[in-house]
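Now read the record:
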Amino acid sequence: MLNFAFCRRVVLVLVGAVGIMGSAADSQVAPESKPPVDTHPKVEPQGRQRIGLVLEGGGALGLAHIGVIRWLEAHHIPVDYVSGTSMGGLVGGLYAAGLDTDEMKKFVDGIDWHTVLSGQVPFQALGFRRKEDKLAFPNRLEFGLKGGRFRLPSGLNSGAAVGLLFDRTLLPYYDLQSFDDLPIPFRCVATEIVTGQPHVFKDGSLAQAMRATMSIPGMFAPVSHGDMIFTDGAAVDNLPVDVARSMGAEVIIASYLDSGPTDPVTLGSLVGVAGRNVSIMIAANVARSLQNADVVISSDVSKFGTLDFARTDDIIPIGDKAAATMSAELEKYALNDADWAEYVRQREARRRTKVPIPQFVEIYGVEGVRQKNLEAKFEKFAGKPIDLDELERTIADVQGTGLYSTIDYIIVDRDGKHGLRIRPREKDHGPPFVNLGITILANDSNNVQFGMATRATFFDLVGPGSELRVDGAVGQPATLSGELYKPFKAGSRAFVAPHAYLTREVVPYYVGSTQLDQYRIRQNGLGADVGFQFNARSEVRVGQDYQWYSSVRTIGQPIGNEFHLRPFVSAVKFQYLGQDDMMVPTSGSTVSAIYNYYTQRPNESGGLSQMTGRLQHFIPIKTREILFGTLQGGTSFGANNLGLAGVSLGGPLRLSAYSRNELLGTDFFLIQGGYLHRLARLNPVIGDSIYAGGLFEIGKMYGGNPQTPSLPFDFTGALVMKTLIGPVLTGLSIGDGGRWKWYFGVGRVF
């Protein structure tokens, strides 16, 4: 099991955050310095000591705090102040806002933590062109060229999904003047990383404060406010006893998460040693806090990992059990039934549950055309009760443009009227944006394709909504291309897209299973498309290109496959991208079709028409299984003797038991049916899931050489792993005639 220290160290070292945290530790003086004393009035308990509950940070381990609170509530132990850090800040903030333990459990159970922690906008919410980007570069690597410099994102996860959860839950507290005005006065701690000092949040946006306290460096992007930049508070005060004291608490109940001793095995690497230094620093400030607590409730969570959010039902009861072991110390602070009822009544009286109807919508933080576009999208929420589900769907659609890191919302007052403020934040690293990808495709040791590719996307160069897309790749194939996408007018779905491209690829030529020759194919061209995007899933294009198209033999004897053409090419293309994931879809369908007419063809006079199409469908079975099917086909409409200008099959997931391009002809079909089973979930910081499954393929190639098999087929077993750098695929395929091949790939699978 991953423990808290190990998971935190992996994240920090992955992105260089250990250095940031180390420098913060050198300069911070949090354990010795006292946070500022609050001046806001507090609710004074009558005739008893004021009790502060302090909750430690610890990822999913912090779910035990819910159990601690449940035990305290059941035994009438009043809490007058709450302070917390990281996950302790999340649980503490919800408790302070009036949620009971059942509501807190419902809150955490309702979160798809794996998706939230991955930091990815759901594929279905992406705009069409961002879907194309993700399919061309199916990984989580995005960089930027903002200001003309290559920039890294500030975290693997923008925190957008977490922020929306807080916005939804805490919206009734939109006009909160002080965290002392909550049902229970509350504070949370973050690290201000410019100075390395602790920052205690006591007013402002409660949602933003909770987001800041759990912004683990490297995992979540920091939260900025003015000139200050905030990250997770664990480095400076992971168990903020001193904060609760400064609020006025006379008795401190500290909820401590005992993650067990360090496993020496984890110290055998650079990551392990560097991460251990971070955990020592955190443990030191926790130890000082424990000495200043009056009652310590120690929850033994050593059997769980910091990312075990799916094990809520196992972790929460540990807090109940830990509190029960301290019952003798705790029950001396218990209230009788009458006093408890009065305490609860006063607390509930301060809880807010109502959200006013917004009379206007305000877009805050962007200007010009983007502001007007956003106003048009969100104006439908004015003048009626807010439908939070619809609001968040609209936010997801806007995030699908790829321009914004986070979009949050809050109610504001203006001229005596309530309004809905939408606060989009543009990404720190772009635009322009840069995608990078690695492609490896091999189905024997002598047939390995390796490539590295990049895409740079520039926005609004020739008007609102326009994009300049520049692609480059080295290896197999090598490409350089550019496209200028421009809507006919702002907001239009119709567009024009002039483009140019250079491609070079080395292609083998087979007779039977024997490779006779090798050719270098060049296909260069320029042209323009006119198209229409129906929605975020589908697009159609009609275009005209002029090409320089050649095939030159580099190995072997001349057998008639060489040609040099300069055709005009008319094309019609359609795409429907209805799947739910860029790497391994679990549901939905994809459709693609392209028709090309060339005014010249190899070996004969006249033109050439070709069309290819593909249909895929994915069906989820229960929670771990996926059934999928694919139907592909292509035709040259009766043309023959096309050589390497024809259609081909062979290679991984295109009749995997055959070599790449081994089957060459004029027309083909390919039918595939498969099954995948999810074996395990990966740490969402570095990956997603591991699948195992099987695939049956059967096809037919027409117009090939005499040794082309009549009905080639194969059975394939495979492992697929969804990782930070993209899907990794490996397997073994056994086909007709005793053929077999192993294969390995990094890059797009489906």
Notes: Residues 270-291 form the longest helix (22 residues). The chain has 17 helices and 33 strands. The radius of gyration is 30 Å.
